[in-house]
Automatic annotation (TrEMBL):
Alphabetized InterPro entries for the sequence: FAD/NAD-bd_sf, Lycopene_cyclase_b/e
Naturally occurring in which organism (per UniProt): Deinococcus aerolatus
Region (Disordered): 411-478
Sorted UniProt keywords: Carotenoid biosynthesis, NAD
A Pfam family: Lycopene_cycl
Compositionally biased tracts (Low complexity): 421-432
Protein name as annotated: Carotenoid cyclase
Biased composition (Basic and acidic residues): 411-420
Length: 495
Protein backbone atom coordinates (compact mmCIF):
# COMPACT_ATOMS: atom_id res chain seq x y z
CA UNK A 1 0.00 0.00 0.00
CA UNK A 2 1.27 3.44 -0.82
CA UNK A 3 2.04 5.92 1.94
CA UNK A 4 3.04 8.60 -0.58
CA UNK A 5 0.75 11.62 -0.79
CA UNK A 6 -1.78 11.30 -3.57
CA UNK A 7 -3.39 14.06 -5.55
CA UNK A 8 -7.01 14.47 -4.44
CA UNK A 9 -8.05 13.07 -7.84
CA UNK A 10 -7.83 9.34 -8.50
CA UNK A 11 -9.17 7.10 -11.22
CA UNK A 12 -11.36 5.30 -8.70
CA UNK A 13 -12.49 6.01 -5.16
CA UNK A 14 -13.78 2.99 -3.24
CA UNK A 15 -15.96 3.65 -0.20
CA UNK A 16 -15.30 0.91 2.35
CA UNK A 17 -12.41 -1.27 3.46
CA UNK A 18 -14.22 -4.57 3.97
CA UNK A 19 -13.23 -7.70 2.01
CA UNK A 20 -15.26 -6.68 -1.05
CA UNK A 21 -14.04 -3.08 -1.31
CA UNK A 22 -10.47 -4.16 -0.78
CA UNK A 23 -10.71 -7.04 -3.25
CA UNK A 24 -11.98 -4.74 -6.00
CA UNK A 25 -9.56 -1.93 -5.10
CA UNK A 26 -6.67 -4.40 -5.24
CA UNK A 27 -7.69 -5.65 -8.68
CA UNK A 28 -8.10 -2.09 -9.96
CA UNK A 29 -4.72 -1.05 -8.59
CA UNK A 30 -3.15 -4.17 -10.08
CA UNK A 31 -4.42 -2.86 -13.44
CA UNK A 32 -2.39 0.30 -12.85
CA UNK A 33 -5.30 2.56 -11.98
CA UNK A 34 -4.89 5.05 -9.15
CA UNK A 35 -7.22 3.98 -6.37
CA UNK A 36 -8.22 5.51 -3.06
CA UNK A 37 -10.04 3.54 -0.41
CA UNK A 38 -11.89 5.64 2.16
CA UNK A 39 -12.88 3.79 5.33
CA UNK A 40 -13.35 4.94 8.92
CA UNK A 41 -10.60 2.57 10.07
CA UNK A 42 -7.03 1.81 8.97
CA UNK A 43 -6.33 -1.44 7.11
CA UNK A 44 -7.11 -4.12 9.67
CA UNK A 45 -8.11 -7.77 9.63
CA UNK A 46 -11.81 -8.12 8.96
CA UNK A 47 -13.73 -8.68 12.17
CA UNK A 48 -16.37 -11.33 11.29
CA UNK A 49 -15.78 -15.06 11.34
CA UNK A 50 -15.85 -15.82 7.62
CA UNK A 51 -16.45 -19.31 6.32
CA UNK A 52 -16.57 -20.48 2.68
CA UNK A 53 -16.67 -23.67 0.65
CA UNK A 54 -13.03 -24.29 -0.20
CA UNK A 55 -13.85 -24.95 -3.87
CA UNK A 56 -15.54 -21.54 -4.15
CA UNK A 57 -12.42 -19.63 -3.10
CA UNK A 58 -10.19 -18.52 -5.97
CA UNK A 59 -6.93 -20.46 -6.00
CA UNK A 60 -4.88 -17.51 -4.78
CA UNK A 61 -7.18 -17.17 -1.72
CA UNK A 62 -7.07 -20.82 -0.71
CA UNK A 63 -3.89 -20.37 1.38
CA UNK A 64 -5.76 -17.61 3.29
CA UNK A 65 -7.57 -20.20 5.36
CA UNK A 66 -7.10 -20.74 9.07
CA UNK A 67 -8.58 -24.22 8.96
CA UNK A 68 -10.25 -26.56 6.48
CA UNK A 69 -12.61 -29.37 7.45
CA UNK A 70 -13.26 -32.38 5.29
CA UNK A 71 -15.73 -33.84 7.80
CA UNK A 72 -18.56 -31.39 7.11
CA UNK A 73 -22.07 -32.40 8.13
CA UNK A 74 -25.63 -31.31 8.51
CA UNK A 75 -28.21 -32.72 10.89
CA UNK A 76 -31.74 -32.43 9.61
CA UNK A 77 -32.79 -35.36 11.79
CA UNK A 78 -31.07 -37.68 14.28
CA UNK A 79 -28.46 -38.94 11.80
CA UNK A 80 -25.80 -36.73 10.23
CA UNK A 81 -25.68 -36.16 6.48
CA UNK A 82 -22.04 -35.95 5.33
CA UNK A 83 -21.66 -33.18 2.78
CA UNK A 84 -18.40 -34.45 1.24
CA UNK A 85 -17.33 -30.89 0.49
CA UNK A 86 -14.41 -29.21 2.28
CA UNK A 87 -15.30 -26.08 4.18
CA UNK A 88 -12.85 -23.36 5.21
CA UNK A 89 -12.53 -20.82 7.98
CA UNK A 90 -10.80 -17.77 6.55
CA UNK A 91 -7.69 -16.35 8.13
CA UNK A 92 -8.67 -12.69 7.99
CA UNK A 93 -5.18 -11.36 8.66
CA UNK A 94 -3.71 -13.39 5.83
CA UNK A 95 -6.58 -12.43 3.54
CA UNK A 96 -6.00 -8.74 4.27
CA UNK A 97 -2.26 -9.02 3.68
CA UNK A 98 -2.76 -10.99 0.47
CA UNK A 99 -5.23 -8.44 -0.89
CA UNK A 100 -2.87 -5.57 -0.06
CA UNK A 101 -0.06 -7.47 -1.76
CA UNK A 102 -2.19 -8.03 -4.85
CA UNK A 103 -2.70 -4.26 -5.05
CA UNK A 104 1.05 -4.05 -5.57
CA UNK A 105 1.62 -0.90 -3.49
CA UNK A 106 -0.61 1.27 -5.66
CA UNK A 107 -3.48 1.63 -3.25
CA UNK A 108 -4.00 4.73 -1.13
CA UNK A 109 -5.95 4.26 2.11
CA UNK A 110 -7.63 7.32 3.61
CA UNK A 111 -9.08 6.95 7.06
CA UNK A 112 -12.32 8.90 7.01
CA UNK A 113 -16.05 8.54 6.67
CA UNK A 114 -17.78 9.38 3.41
CA UNK A 115 -20.95 11.44 3.70
CA UNK A 116 -22.00 11.85 0.08
CA UNK A 117 -21.00 12.07 -3.57
CA UNK A 118 -22.09 14.19 -6.53
CA UNK A 119 -21.07 14.42 -10.16
CA UNK A 120 -19.90 17.78 -11.54
CA UNK A 121 -18.03 18.59 -14.74
CA UNK A 122 -17.57 14.93 -15.61
CA UNK A 123 -15.91 14.15 -12.26
CA UNK A 124 -17.23 12.64 -9.06
CA UNK A 125 -16.82 14.74 -5.93
CA UNK A 126 -16.86 12.69 -2.74
CA UNK A 127 -17.32 14.39 0.60
CA UNK A 128 -15.68 13.31 3.83
CA UNK A 129 -17.02 13.85 7.31
CA UNK A 130 -14.65 16.73 8.03
CA UNK A 131 -15.46 18.54 4.77
CA UNK A 132 -12.86 16.83 2.55
CA UNK A 133 -13.56 16.82 -1.17
CA UNK A 134 -11.93 14.01 -3.12
CA UNK A 135 -12.45 13.70 -6.85
CA UNK A 136 -12.48 10.57 -8.94
CA UNK A 137 -13.51 9.36 -12.37
CA UNK A 138 -15.45 6.50 -10.83
CA UNK A 139 -16.88 5.96 -7.35
CA UNK A 140 -17.54 2.48 -5.96
CA UNK A 141 -19.88 1.99 -3.03
CA UNK A 142 -18.52 -0.96 -1.05
CA UNK A 143 -19.87 0.33 2.26
CA UNK A 144 -21.58 -2.94 3.17
CA UNK A 145 -25.17 -4.05 3.68
CA UNK A 146 -27.77 -1.47 2.76
CA UNK A 147 -25.31 0.66 0.74
CA UNK A 148 -24.40 4.27 1.52
CA UNK A 149 -24.45 5.84 -1.95
CA UNK A 150 -26.55 3.15 -3.65
CA UNK A 151 -29.13 2.39 -0.96
CA UNK A 152 -30.75 -1.02 -1.26
CA UNK A 153 -34.53 -1.19 -1.37
CA UNK A 154 -35.64 -4.41 0.34
CA UNK A 155 -39.06 -5.45 -0.93
CA UNK A 156 -41.39 -5.94 2.06
CA UNK A 157 -38.61 -4.78 4.41
CA UNK A 158 -35.27 -6.40 5.15
CA UNK A 159 -35.37 -10.11 6.03
CA UNK A 160 -32.35 -10.81 8.21
CA UNK A 161 -29.99 -13.62 8.92
CA UNK A 162 -29.06 -13.39 12.58
CA UNK A 163 -26.72 -15.44 14.71
CA UNK A 164 -24.99 -15.36 18.05
CA UNK A 165 -21.73 -17.26 18.39
CA UNK A 166 -18.88 -17.78 20.82
CA UNK A 167 -15.36 -19.16 20.73
CA UNK A 168 -14.97 -21.06 23.98
CA UNK A 169 -13.48 -24.07 25.70
CA UNK A 170 -15.62 -27.08 26.55
CA UNK A 171 -15.11 -29.99 28.90
CA UNK A 172 -17.26 -32.13 26.62
CA UNK A 173 -17.39 -31.53 22.86
CA UNK A 174 -20.47 -29.50 21.87
CA UNK A 175 -20.15 -30.90 18.33
CA UNK A 176 -18.19 -33.82 16.84
CA UNK A 177 -14.43 -33.39 17.33
CA UNK A 178 -12.60 -32.80 14.04
CA UNK A 179 -15.80 -31.85 12.27
CA UNK A 180 -17.57 -28.78 10.98
CA UNK A 181 -21.35 -28.82 11.43
CA UNK A 182 -22.85 -26.57 8.81
CA UNK A 183 -26.38 -26.88 10.10
CA UNK A 184 -27.82 -28.79 13.06
CA UNK A 185 -31.58 -28.46 13.17
CA UNK A 186 -32.03 -30.90 16.06
CA UNK A 187 -33.84 -29.16 18.89
CA UNK A 188 -35.20 -31.76 21.33
CA UNK A 189 -34.80 -29.21 24.13
CA UNK A 190 -37.44 -26.91 22.58
CA UNK A 191 -41.12 -27.54 22.20
CA UNK A 192 -42.55 -27.71 18.72
CA UNK A 193 -44.33 -24.35 18.96
CA UNK A 194 -41.03 -22.61 19.76
CA UNK A 195 -39.35 -24.21 16.78
CA UNK A 196 -42.33 -23.43 14.58
CA UNK A 197 -42.22 -19.70 15.31
CA UNK A 198 -38.47 -19.17 15.80
CA UNK A 199 -36.48 -21.86 13.96
CA UNK A 200 -32.75 -21.74 14.68
CA UNK A 201 -29.89 -24.14 14.08
CA UNK A 202 -26.38 -24.71 15.37
CA UNK A 203 -23.35 -23.89 13.18
CA UNK A 204 -20.25 -25.31 14.84
CA UNK A 205 -16.54 -25.72 14.18
CA UNK A 206 -14.02 -27.69 16.16
CA UNK A 207 -11.02 -25.34 16.24
CA UNK A 208 -8.40 -27.26 18.23
CA UNK A 209 -8.09 -29.13 21.52
CA UNK A 210 -11.15 -28.25 23.58
CA UNK A 211 -11.83 -25.01 21.61
CA UNK A 212 -14.96 -24.71 19.50
CA UNK A 213 -16.82 -22.01 17.65
CA UNK A 214 -20.53 -22.55 18.25
CA UNK A 215 -23.17 -20.29 16.79
CA UNK A 216 -26.95 -20.36 17.04
CA UNK A 217 -28.28 -19.15 13.70
CA UNK A 218 -31.61 -17.98 12.35
CA UNK A 219 -31.30 -18.55 8.61
CA UNK A 220 -33.74 -15.85 7.65
CA UNK A 221 -36.58 -14.10 9.46
CA UNK A 222 -38.72 -10.98 9.25
CA UNK A 223 -38.89 -9.71 11.94
CA UNK A 224 -35.59 -11.17 13.10
CA UNK A 225 -34.93 -12.51 16.60
CA UNK A 226 -32.95 -10.27 18.94
CA UNK A 227 -29.37 -10.79 20.08
CA UNK A 228 -30.54 -11.65 23.61
CA UNK A 229 -32.96 -14.21 22.25
CA UNK A 230 -30.28 -15.86 20.10
CA UNK A 231 -27.74 -15.88 22.94
CA UNK A 232 -30.33 -17.49 25.23
CA UNK A 233 -31.07 -20.10 22.54
CA UNK A 234 -27.37 -20.95 22.22
CA UNK A 235 -26.87 -21.36 25.96
CA UNK A 236 -30.09 -23.38 26.27
CA UNK A 237 -28.82 -25.74 23.56
CA UNK A 238 -25.41 -26.13 25.19
CA UNK A 239 -27.07 -26.69 28.57
CA UNK A 240 -29.34 -29.36 27.09
CA UNK A 241 -26.32 -31.05 25.49
CA UNK A 242 -24.63 -31.04 28.90
CA UNK A 243 -21.72 -29.03 27.48
CA UNK A 244 -21.66 -25.57 29.08
CA UNK A 245 -18.71 -23.48 27.85
CA UNK A 246 -15.93 -22.26 30.07
CA UNK A 247 -13.29 -19.62 29.29
CA UNK A 248 -15.25 -17.89 26.57
CA UNK A 249 -12.68 -16.08 24.40
CA UNK A 250 -14.95 -13.97 22.22
CA UNK A 251 -18.50 -13.61 21.05
CA UNK A 252 -20.06 -12.43 17.80
CA UNK A 253 -23.43 -11.05 16.79
CA UNK A 254 -24.42 -11.48 13.17
CA UNK A 255 -27.28 -9.57 11.55
CA UNK A 256 -27.54 -8.71 7.88
CA UNK A 257 -30.23 -8.61 5.20
CA UNK A 258 -30.64 -11.54 2.82
CA UNK A 259 -33.30 -10.30 0.41
CA UNK A 260 -31.58 -7.63 -1.66
CA UNK A 261 -32.95 -7.44 -5.20
CA UNK A 262 -30.64 -6.98 -8.17
CA UNK A 263 -29.83 -3.25 -7.92
CA UNK A 264 -30.66 -0.71 -10.59
CA UNK A 265 -27.43 0.44 -12.23
CA UNK A 266 -26.50 4.08 -11.67
CA UNK A 267 -23.60 6.49 -11.97
CA UNK A 268 -21.97 5.08 -8.83
CA UNK A 269 -20.93 1.45 -9.09
CA UNK A 270 -21.63 -0.74 -6.05
CA UNK A 271 -19.74 -3.86 -5.02
CA UNK A 272 -20.02 -6.58 -2.39
CA UNK A 273 -22.86 -6.50 0.10
CA UNK A 274 -23.72 -2.94 -1.00
CA UNK A 275 -24.38 -4.32 -4.49
CA UNK A 276 -26.88 -6.87 -3.20
CA UNK A 277 -24.44 -9.75 -3.58
CA UNK A 278 -25.23 -11.60 -0.37
CA UNK A 279 -26.56 -15.01 -1.38
CA UNK A 280 -30.28 -14.99 -0.50
CA UNK A 281 -30.30 -18.56 0.78
CA UNK A 282 -26.90 -19.08 2.42
CA UNK A 283 -25.97 -15.51 3.36
CA UNK A 284 -22.50 -16.03 1.85
CA UNK A 285 -20.82 -13.25 -0.03
CA UNK A 286 -17.08 -13.15 0.57
CA UNK A 287 -15.95 -15.89 -1.84
CA UNK A 288 -18.28 -14.46 -4.49
CA UNK A 289 -16.74 -10.99 -4.14
CA UNK A 290 -13.21 -12.40 -4.45
CA UNK A 291 -14.27 -14.12 -7.66
CA UNK A 292 -16.20 -11.15 -9.07
CA UNK A 293 -13.47 -8.57 -8.42
CA UNK A 294 -11.09 -9.34 -11.35
CA UNK A 295 -13.91 -9.40 -13.91
CA UNK A 296 -15.41 -6.13 -12.72
CA UNK A 297 -11.99 -4.47 -12.40
CA UNK A 298 -11.12 -5.49 -15.94
CA UNK A 299 -14.35 -4.02 -17.33
CA UNK A 300 -13.76 -0.79 -15.40
CA UNK A 301 -10.09 -0.52 -16.38
CA UNK A 302 -10.78 -1.04 -20.08
CA UNK A 303 -13.60 1.52 -20.20
CA UNK A 304 -11.74 4.12 -18.15
CA UNK A 305 -8.81 3.87 -20.55
CA UNK A 306 -11.14 4.39 -23.48
CA UNK A 307 -12.86 7.31 -21.74
CA UNK A 308 -16.15 5.42 -21.76
CA UNK A 309 -18.79 4.87 -19.05
CA UNK A 310 -16.94 2.78 -16.48
CA UNK A 311 -19.86 2.57 -14.05
CA UNK A 312 -22.11 1.08 -16.74
CA UNK A 313 -19.41 -1.42 -17.72
CA UNK A 314 -18.89 -2.38 -14.08
CA UNK A 315 -22.61 -2.91 -13.54
CA UNK A 316 -22.84 -5.05 -16.69
CA UNK A 317 -19.93 -7.20 -15.54
CA UNK A 318 -21.35 -7.56 -12.03
CA UNK A 319 -25.03 -8.05 -12.75
CA UNK A 320 -25.45 -9.48 -16.26
CA UNK A 321 -29.04 -10.34 -17.26
CA UNK A 322 -28.69 -14.04 -16.32
CA UNK A 323 -27.64 -13.10 -12.80
CA UNK A 324 -30.55 -10.67 -12.48
CA UNK A 325 -32.99 -13.35 -13.57
CA UNK A 326 -31.36 -15.86 -11.20
CA UNK A 327 -31.87 -13.41 -8.34
CA UNK A 328 -35.60 -13.40 -9.07
CA UNK A 329 -35.65 -17.17 -8.71
CA UNK A 330 -33.64 -17.02 -5.48
CA UNK A 331 -35.93 -14.34 -4.05
CA UNK A 332 -38.93 -16.45 -4.90
CA UNK A 333 -37.40 -19.31 -2.97
CA UNK A 334 -36.45 -17.05 -0.09
CA UNK A 335 -40.05 -15.81 0.10
CA UNK A 336 -41.24 -19.39 0.28
CA UNK A 337 -38.71 -20.24 3.02
CA UNK A 338 -39.84 -17.20 5.01
CA UNK A 339 -43.36 -18.56 5.05
CA UNK A 340 -42.49 -22.19 5.67
CA UNK A 341 -43.42 -23.15 9.26
CA UNK A 342 -40.15 -23.28 11.20
CA UNK A 343 -40.60 -26.88 12.27
CA UNK A 344 -40.52 -27.90 8.58
CA UNK A 345 -37.15 -26.34 7.80
CA UNK A 346 -35.26 -29.48 8.85
CA UNK A 347 -37.32 -31.53 6.40
CA UNK A 348 -36.80 -28.93 3.69
CA UNK A 349 -33.04 -29.13 4.10
CA UNK A 350 -33.18 -32.92 4.31
CA UNK A 351 -34.71 -32.85 0.81
CA UNK A 352 -32.25 -30.18 -0.26
CA UNK A 353 -29.18 -32.17 0.74
CA UNK A 354 -30.61 -35.34 -0.77
CA UNK A 355 -30.26 -33.65 -4.15
CA UNK A 356 -27.25 -34.64 -6.22
CA UNK A 357 -24.23 -32.75 -4.92
CA UNK A 358 -23.86 -30.85 -8.18
CA UNK A 359 -27.38 -29.51 -7.74
CA UNK A 360 -27.14 -28.22 -4.22
CA UNK A 361 -23.67 -26.82 -4.92
CA UNK A 362 -25.14 -24.95 -7.87
CA UNK A 363 -28.09 -23.75 -5.83
CA UNK A 364 -25.76 -22.19 -3.25
CA UNK A 365 -23.22 -20.88 -5.74
CA UNK A 366 -23.12 -17.14 -6.42
CA UNK A 367 -23.04 -17.32 -10.21
CA UNK A 368 -25.37 -20.15 -11.20
CA UNK A 369 -27.26 -19.50 -14.41
CA UNK A 370 -30.98 -19.01 -14.16
CA UNK A 371 -32.09 -22.14 -15.99
CA UNK A 372 -29.92 -24.37 -13.85
CA UNK A 373 -31.22 -22.63 -10.75
CA UNK A 374 -34.85 -22.94 -11.78
CA UNK A 375 -34.33 -26.63 -12.51
CA UNK A 376 -32.70 -27.17 -9.11
CA UNK A 377 -35.59 -25.37 -7.47
CA UNK A 378 -38.08 -27.64 -9.20
CA UNK A 379 -36.07 -30.62 -8.05
CA UNK A 380 -36.19 -29.43 -4.44
CA UNK A 381 -39.97 -29.16 -4.77
CA UNK A 382 -40.10 -32.61 -6.30
CA UNK A 383 -37.95 -34.19 -3.58
CA UNK A 384 -39.57 -32.48 -0.60
CA UNK A 385 -42.23 -34.33 1.41
CA UNK A 386 -45.71 -32.98 0.81
CA UNK A 387 -45.82 -31.46 4.32
CA UNK A 388 -43.02 -29.19 3.11
CA UNK A 389 -43.98 -28.92 -0.53
CA UNK A 390 -47.49 -27.64 0.03
CA UNK A 391 -46.56 -24.67 2.23
CA UNK A 392 -43.71 -23.85 -0.18
CA UNK A 393 -45.99 -23.89 -3.18
CA UNK A 394 -48.67 -21.90 -1.37
CA UNK A 395 -46.09 -19.34 -0.36
CA UNK A 396 -44.83 -19.10 -3.93
CA UNK A 397 -48.33 -18.65 -5.25
CA UNK A 398 -49.01 -15.82 -2.84
CA UNK A 399 -46.82 -13.81 -5.17
CA UNK A 400 -48.04 -15.06 -8.53
CA UNK A 401 -46.60 -12.10 -10.43
CA UNK A 402 -43.14 -12.70 -9.07
CA UNK A 403 -43.15 -16.45 -9.29
CA UNK A 404 -44.52 -16.77 -12.77
CA UNK A 405 -42.35 -14.02 -14.05
CA UNK A 406 -39.34 -15.70 -12.51
CA UNK A 407 -40.18 -19.11 -13.94
CA UNK A 408 -40.93 -17.68 -17.36
CA UNK A 409 -37.75 -15.66 -17.32
CA UNK A 410 -35.92 -18.77 -16.25
CA UNK A 411 -37.25 -20.87 -19.07
CA UNK A 412 -36.75 -18.19 -21.72
CA UNK A 413 -33.33 -17.13 -20.62
CA UNK A 414 -30.62 -17.55 -23.21
CA UNK A 415 -27.63 -19.09 -21.55
CA UNK A 416 -24.20 -19.54 -23.09
CA UNK A 417 -23.98 -21.48 -26.33
CA UNK A 418 -22.99 -24.71 -24.65
CA UNK A 419 -26.45 -24.74 -23.08
CA UNK A 420 -28.40 -23.71 -26.14
CA UNK A 421 -26.74 -26.34 -28.35
CA UNK A 422 -27.00 -29.53 -26.39
CA UNK A 423 -24.74 -32.31 -27.61
CA UNK A 424 -25.71 -35.90 -28.13
CA UNK A 425 -25.65 -38.19 -25.14
CA UNK A 426 -22.95 -40.83 -25.01
CA UNK A 427 -23.98 -43.99 -26.87
CA UNK A 428 -26.04 -46.34 -24.81
CA UNK A 429 -27.35 -43.68 -22.43
CA UNK A 430 -30.92 -44.54 -21.48
CA UNK A 431 -33.44 -42.72 -23.60
CA UNK A 432 -30.69 -41.31 -25.87
CA UNK A 433 -31.38 -37.91 -24.34
CA UNK A 434 -29.58 -34.76 -25.37
CA UNK A 435 -27.94 -32.99 -22.49
CA UNK A 436 -26.18 -29.75 -21.64
CA UNK A 437 -22.58 -29.91 -20.50
CA UNK A 438 -23.72 -29.33 -16.94
CA UNK A 439 -26.24 -32.12 -16.89
CA UNK A 440 -23.85 -34.45 -18.68
CA UNK A 441 -21.20 -33.77 -16.05
CA UNK A 442 -23.73 -34.62 -13.38
CA UNK A 443 -24.80 -37.78 -15.15
CA UNK A 444 -21.21 -38.83 -15.71
CA UNK A 445 -20.41 -38.21 -12.06
CA UNK A 446 -22.85 -41.01 -11.32
CA UNK A 447 -24.72 -39.07 -8.65
CA UNK A 448 -27.81 -38.25 -10.59
CA UNK A 449 -30.56 -40.07 -12.39
CA UNK A 450 -31.15 -37.50 -15.08
CA UNK A 451 -34.34 -39.00 -16.42
CA UNK A 452 -35.89 -39.33 -12.98
CA UNK A 453 -35.04 -35.79 -12.03
CA UNK A 454 -36.40 -34.36 -15.24
CA UNK A 455 -39.61 -36.31 -14.88
CA UNK A 456 -40.06 -35.18 -11.30
CA UNK A 457 -39.01 -31.63 -11.95
CA UNK A 458 -40.97 -30.98 -15.08
CA UNK A 459 -44.14 -32.86 -14.29
CA UNK A 460 -43.81 -35.88 -16.46
CA UNK A 461 -41.94 -34.92 -19.63
CA UNK A 462 -40.25 -38.07 -20.86
CA UNK A 463 -38.24 -39.48 -23.70
CA UNK A 464 -36.16 -37.28 -25.92
CA UNK A 465 -35.91 -34.11 -23.85
CA UNK A 466 -33.61 -31.12 -23.68
CA UNK A 467 -31.81 -29.72 -20.67
CA UNK A 468 -35.04 -28.28 -19.29
CA UNK A 469 -36.78 -31.62 -19.53
CA UNK A 470 -38.81 -30.44 -22.53
CA UNK A 471 -39.30 -32.30 -25.78
CA UNK A 472 -37.62 -30.50 -28.70
CA UNK A 473 -40.81 -29.24 -30.35
CA UNK A 474 -42.81 -28.53 -27.25
CA UNK A 475 -44.72 -25.27 -26.88
CA UNK A 476 -42.84 -23.78 -23.94
CA UNK A 477 -45.58 -21.34 -23.07
CA UNK A 478 -48.10 -24.14 -22.88
CA UNK A 479 -45.76 -26.24 -20.79
CA UNK A 480 -45.32 -23.42 -18.31
CA UNK A 481 -49.07 -22.92 -18.03
CA UNK A 482 -49.33 -26.65 -17.41
CA UNK A 483 -46.68 -26.42 -14.75
CA UNK A 484 -48.57 -23.57 -13.14
CA UNK A 485 -51.77 -25.58 -13.14
CA UNK A 486 -49.99 -28.56 -11.63
CA UNK A 487 -48.55 -26.42 -8.88
CA UNK A 488 -51.94 -24.81 -8.27
CA UNK A 489 -53.54 -28.22 -8.08
CA UNK A 490 -51.17 -29.66 -5.48
CA UNK A 491 -51.33 -26.46 -3.45
CA UNK A 492 -55.12 -26.37 -3.44
CA UNK A 493 -55.10 -22.92 -5.08
CA UNK A 494 -56.77 -24.15 -8.23
CA UNK A 495 -59.88 -25.34 -6.48
C1 LIG B 1 -20.77 -11.22 11.67
C2 LIG B 1 -20.96 -11.62 10.22
C3 LIG B 1 -20.52 -12.88 9.81
C4 LIG B 1 -20.61 -13.21 8.45
N1 LIG B 1 -20.15 -14.42 8.06
C5 LIG B 1 -20.04 -14.70 6.74
C6 LIG B 1 -19.41 -15.88 6.29
O1 LIG B 1 -19.04 -16.76 7.09
N2 LIG B 1 -19.23 -16.06 4.96
C7 LIG B 1 -19.66 -15.14 4.04
O2 LIG B 1 -19.44 -15.31 2.84
N3 LIG B 1 -20.33 -14.04 4.44
C8 LIG B 1 -20.53 -13.78 5.76
N4 LIG B 1 -21.18 -12.63 6.16
C9 LIG B 1 -21.90 -11.81 5.16
C10 LIG B 1 -21.01 -10.83 4.35
O3 LIG B 1 -20.15 -11.56 3.53
C11 LIG B 1 -20.21 -9.91 5.20
O4 LIG B 1 -21.08 -8.99 5.79
C12 LIG B 1 -19.08 -9.13 4.50
O5 LIG B 1 -18.36 -8.48 5.50
C13 LIG B 1 -19.55 -8.12 3.47
O6 LIG B 1 -18.40 -7.55 2.91
P1 LIG B 1 -18.35 -6.06 2.34
O7 LIG B 1 -16.94 -5.74 2.12
O8 LIG B 1 -19.29 -5.96 1.22
O9 LIG B 1 -18.96 -5.16 3.50
P2 LIG B 1 -18.38 -4.91 4.98
O10 LIG B 1 -17.52 -6.01 5.41
O11 LIG B 1 -19.57 -4.56 5.82
O12 LIG B 1 -17.46 -3.63 4.83
C14 LIG B 1 -17.99 -2.35 4.66
C15 LIG B 1 -16.87 -1.35 4.76
O13 LIG B 1 -17.41 -0.04 4.51
C16 LIG B 1 -16.99 0.83 5.54
N5 LIG B 1 -17.94 1.94 5.63
C17 LIG B 1 -19.22 1.91 6.07
N6 LIG B 1 -19.76 3.15 6.02
C18 LIG B 1 -18.79 3.96 5.52
C19 LIG B 1 -18.72 5.36 5.23
N7 LIG B 1 -19.75 6.17 5.45
N8 LIG B 1 -17.57 5.87 4.74
C20 LIG B 1 -16.50 5.05 4.50
N9 LIG B 1 -16.52 3.73 4.77
C21 LIG B 1 -17.64 3.20 5.27
C22 LIG B 1 -16.91 -0.07 6.76
O14 LIG B 1 -16.18 0.52 7.81
C23 LIG B 1 -16.23 -1.27 6.14
O15 LIG B 1 -14.85 -1.03 5.98
C24 LIG B 1 -21.17 -12.29 7.51
C25 LIG B 1 -21.65 -11.08 7.97
C26 LIG B 1 -21.56 -10.73 9.29
C27 LIG B 1 -22.10 -9.40 9.74
Amino acid sequence: MSAAPLSTTTDVLVVGGGPSGLALAAELAARRLSVRIVAPHPPRPFAPTYGAWLDELPTWAQPCTAQVWTDVRVYTGPQPTPLMRPYALLDNTRLLDTLLERAGGRLHWTQDRVTGAAQRDGRWHVQGEAGEDWTARLVVDASGHGGLLCPTCFGGGAALQTAYGIVAHFQRPPSPPGAMVWMDYRAAHLDRAEVRTEPTFLYAMHLDGDRYFVQETSLIARPAPSRDFMAARLYARLQALGTPPHNTESDEWVAFPMNAPAPAPGGVLAFGAAAGLVHPISGFQVAGALNDAPRVAEAVAVTLRRGEDAAAAGWDALWPPERRAAREVHLLDLGALLELPGDRLGEFFAAFFRLPAADWHAFLAPQTGVRRLARSMLRVFAHAPSAVRLPLVRAALKHPGVSLQALREAARMKEPDRLSHPTAAPAGHPGAMTQSDDTRREANSGDIDQQEVIEEGMQGATGNVDADGLAPNVDRQKKLEELRENIAEISGEGR
